């Protein structure tokens, strides 16, 4: 092998640089099923925002003379036992479910990330105390913990939000702590400590940004978990209180009419299934797109 050949080989064999945004979009949108369910999520958000204009009827207006009607041109999904339009209540239920899911997950992210970064960065007694609290919360299944909190606080939207936020916080805290334990040993963190940067600046400017990728993926997945948990709590009578439209409560009310009018339960139940499946598929695609092991290889 000549000297000239040896000098040119590293240049020839170097992998081409890949635009990060292009790589992300290529992986994230590389499957048609992801685009389909992503469109469903966008449509759900649109329906939740503009429910007042999309719903054909007032979801709380009762008309007992037209109760339990089958689907027709006037009422596409029929009416419930109080004569309320099922389609309108499903549309308004979209707003309630997305609101509960997003607010509860947001609170859980803030609390979990804060606890995780403090625990992982400082270690010692602080890490021990926070970790034991997180372990105690993780000892209970999430839905059981939320159900217990809801039973203590009583039914209502904010009760559901608080219960779900407490139930979801340990997963974010545990994941963030693990990420921080890895990142804080990096050379750039040690260099920041050497030049005298404060702990707050290091955590905010260097540790947190490098730990966000798995947190973003977990947020997407837990949105579906939160919506499903809200529907479960509402189904059991501990979640959203009547007459407010909620998918879980609608499934509970419609189960008495499964033989003669199954659409009363199937319509809101199908919405729960669709939105949870959409969040899981989009979250899975987001995980693949943010995986650093794929960088430069696609």
UniProtKB/TrEMBL annotation:
GO (cellular component) term, any one: plasma membrane
Keyword S-adenosyl-L-methionine: no
Principal subcellular localisation of the protein: membrane
Entries under Gene3D superfamilies matching the protein: MetI-like
Name of the encoding gene: gsiD_3
InterPro entries attached to this UniProt entry: BP-dependent_transpt_permease, MetI-like, MetI-like_sf, OppC_N
ABC transmembrane type-1 domain residues: 94-283
PROSITE patterns named in the record: ABC_TM1
Name of protein: Glutathione transport system permease protein GsiD
Subcellular location: Cell membrane
Family membership noted in the UniProt record: Belongs to the binding-protein-dependent transport system permease family.
Keyword annotations from UniProtKB, A to Z: Cell membrane, Membrane, Transmembrane, Transmembrane helix, Transport
Gene Ontology annotations of biological process type: transmembrane transport
Regions crossing the membrane: 33-55, 98-122, 142-168, 207-229, 263-286
Source organism of this protein record: Halalkalibacter krulwichiae
Membrane topology qualifier: Multi-pass membrane protein
């Amino acid at each position: 092998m000549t000297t000239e050949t040896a000098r040119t080989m590293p240049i020839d064999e170097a992998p081409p640089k890949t635009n990060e945004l292009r790589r992300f979009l290529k992986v994230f949108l590389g499957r048609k099923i992801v685009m389909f369910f992503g469109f469903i999520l966008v449509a759900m958000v649109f329906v939740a925002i503009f429910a007042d204009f999309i719903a054909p009827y007032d979801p709380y207006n009762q008309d007992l003379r037209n109760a339990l009607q089958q689907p027709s041109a006037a009422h596409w999904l029929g009416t419930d036992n109080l004569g309320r339009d099922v389609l309108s209540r499903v549309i308004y239920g979209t707003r309630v479910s997305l609101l509960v899911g997003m607010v509860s997950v947001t609170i859980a992210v803030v609390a979990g990330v804060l606890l995780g970064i403090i625990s992982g960065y400082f270690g010692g007694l602080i890490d021990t105390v926070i970790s034991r609290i997180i372990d105690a919360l993780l000892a209970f299944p999430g839905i059981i913990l939320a159900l217990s909190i809801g039973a203590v606080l009583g039914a209502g939207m904010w009760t559901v939000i608080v219960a779900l936020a407490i139930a979801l916080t340990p997963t974010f805290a545990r994941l963030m702590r693990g990420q921080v334990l890895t990142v804080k040993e990096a050379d750039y963190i040690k260099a920041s400590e050497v030049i005298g940067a404060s702990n707050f600046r290091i955590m905010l400017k260097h540790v947190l940004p490098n730990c966000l990728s798995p947190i973003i993926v977990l947020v997407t997945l837990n949105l579906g978990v939160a919506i499903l948990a809200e529907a479960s709590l509402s189904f059991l009578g501990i979640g959203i209180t009547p007459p407010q439209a909620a998918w879980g409560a609608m499934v509970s009310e419609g189960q008495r009419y499964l033989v003669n009018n199954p659409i009363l339960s199937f319509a809101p139940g199908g919405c729960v299934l669709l939105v949870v499946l959409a969040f899981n598929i989009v979250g899975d695609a987001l995980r693949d797109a943010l995986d650093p092991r794929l960088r430069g290889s696609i």
